[in-house]
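Subject: Interface between my chains keeps coming out wrong

I've been trying for a while to get a sensible model of this assembly. When I model each chain on its own everything looks fine, but I need the whole thing in one frame so I can look at the contacts. Pasting all components below, labels as-is. Any help appreciated, I'm running out of ideas.
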Amino acid sequence: EQVQESGPGLVKPSETLSLTCTVSGGSMSGYYWNWLRQPPGKELEWIANVRDSENVNYNPSLKSRVTISLDTSKNHFSLKLSSVTAADTAVYYCAREGSAYNYFDFWGQGTLVTVSS
Amino acid sequence: DIVLTQSPATLSLSPGERATLSCRASQSVSRYFSWYQHKPGQAPRLLIYDTSKRATGIPARFSGSGSGTDFTLTISSLEPEDFAVYYCQHRSNWPLFTFGPGTKVDIK
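Reply #2:
Try treating it as a single job with all components included. I did that and got this:
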């Protein structure tokens, strides 16, 4: 199983950050798929996950600005973060949650997204 | 909210030495405790889950232990490829995940 993030590396303040995670080498069905981020010099932060249309969860601190979606036909899932500020500058990771739900067994290499005008 | 504190921040050791990394939770937590290895420019790698279970393909020199508020990752004999940053992680209030700040293991 492999996962790989893609999307713009630069987003303007107040705009929407959009990232896609492509999954290869296995089925997406039955797993939770996650987005996390790590701002420079700060700790890893979990953003959201999705298993199917009925199982979607968000970090309360970001919930009002985040949308996560899943497209199993295209083997990918996506993140949208609206109204970004410089505080949203971070390396964004996608990851698969393990079958026991409490850890991440496959991660992408991460993609740096900078919020700047 | 549970806070995870890792110590030391940096551990300087030589290949062949034993590494003991600590992660302390701000309150007693369940056994759903994990450890990850992260090298620059690479994907983080799951080492240990459920406190002491090695992930698929992880060498036996990596082991995890602990309970309550104190958890430990031990690398019995450091190999050159083990020099990296190590993060602990816990899932306390579903669906939230919490990570520690990391311990950097570097070459002495």
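Reply #3:
Confirming on my end. Residues 46 and 73 of chain A are 25 Å apart (CA to CA).
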